[in-house]
Amino acid sequence: MHNFQVFCSGKVKYAGQPLGLIVAETQASALKAVPKVKVDYSNASRPWLNMRHIIASGDKTRIRVDKEADTIKKDGKHKF
Known about the structure:
Blueprint (H helix, E strand, L loop, with lengths): L26 H7 L17 H7 L14 E3 L2 E3 L1
Antiparallel strand pairs: 1-2
């Protein structure tokens, strides 16, 4: 079983990662609170835009292997 964070705690790992939650009695109240939320990012680094960037980074926390790919040998070549 994997442990996943619901909200970011410390380092932001991907665009759109939830940072928090607004709790209100009505949707109107919640929408009124949205512009009051302020987030400051420090130590921003260049984003990893695809798997090649992530693999090249060597950051093993960004890669999770649930199952290895099955290989099929066809014409002497491996096909995934």
